[in-house]
Amino acid sequence: MSLLDHAKAVRENAYAPYSNFKVGAAVQTASGTIYTGVNVENVAYPEGTCAEAGAIAAMCAAGDRKIVEVAVIADSPTPVTPCGGCRQKIAEFAQPETIVRMYTTGGAQLEMTVAQLLPGVFTADHMANT
User: Fold this and answer.
1) Residue 130: is it exposed, middle or buried by C-beta count within 10 angstroms (0-12/13-18/19+)?
2) Could you tell me the pTM of the whole model?
């Protein structure tokens, strides 16, 4: 099963009763393991969780730390890029050249690196003096 297939399958479990905008995400790590996540809305906006954050949380809970590829899928006219917070979360565990593939349920695809998604990323190097 491909990374896209994992994201597509888990997307069906998204909890989006308010927007009906379901997102599925899958991250593959250096160990070869794939972790998935979905967006989870809450009536008390903005207390929801993004799909990418859910996949990263599952990865961390399992003790894995190095993302080598990301896939995100949503039912939208064009591929949806991760929000700013999720870009930073992905960058925490990925290299600048790590590929992030974004898909629509209709088959459109956009591929970008982490560096392209988040130029000027805040990293641990910025905290070297602390």
Assistant:
1) exposed
2) 0.95
| Per-position pLDDT tens, the chain of length 130 | 999 999 999 999 999 999 999 999 999 999 999 999 999 999 998 899 999 999 999 999 999 999 999 999 999 999 999 999 999 999 999 999 999 999 999 999 999 999 999 999 998 888 988 7
Backbone angles phi and psi of 116, in degrees to 5: -70, -40
Q: Does residue 52 carry a catalytic annotation?
A: yes
Q: At what angle do helices 3-11 and 51-61 cross, to 10 degrees?
A: 110
Task: Pick the catalytic residue from 12, 52, 92, 111.
Answer: 52
- Using only C-alpha atoms, the chain has a radius of gyration, in whole angstroms, of 14
* Domains defined along the chain, listed by start: 3-127 (3.40.140.10)
